[in-house]
């Protein structure tokens, strides 16, 4: 019975903290657009990607020699 004197107020405090976290996230705009970021992942947007990956440069190309 003595444990209830500790557990009931502790659980009430935890509920109020969880509600405060939820409502502060809601007021901050956390839940405004739930679909947009998931759809952005699926879009094929290669405009910011480099055209070809940079490979290793051999010594002839680095020195400007066009022997091959």
UniProtKB/TrEMBL annotation:
Residues 48-62 have a biased composition (Low complexity). It comes from the Bacteria. Residues 42-68 are annotated as: Disordered. InterPro entries: Cyt_oxidase_maturation_cbb3. Pfam families: FixS. NCBIfam families: ccoS (TIGR00847). PANTHER family: FIXS PROTEIN. This is Cytochrome oxidase maturation protein, cbb3-type.
């Amino acid at each position: 019975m003595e444990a209830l004197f500790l557990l009931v107020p502790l659980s009430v405090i935890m509920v109020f903290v969880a509600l405060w976290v939820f409502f502060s996230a809601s007021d901050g705009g956390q839940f405004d657009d739930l679909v947009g970021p998931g759809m952005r992942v699926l879009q094929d947007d290669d405009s910011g990607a480099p055209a070809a990956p940079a490979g290793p440069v051999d010594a002839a190309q680095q020195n400007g020699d066009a022997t091959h």
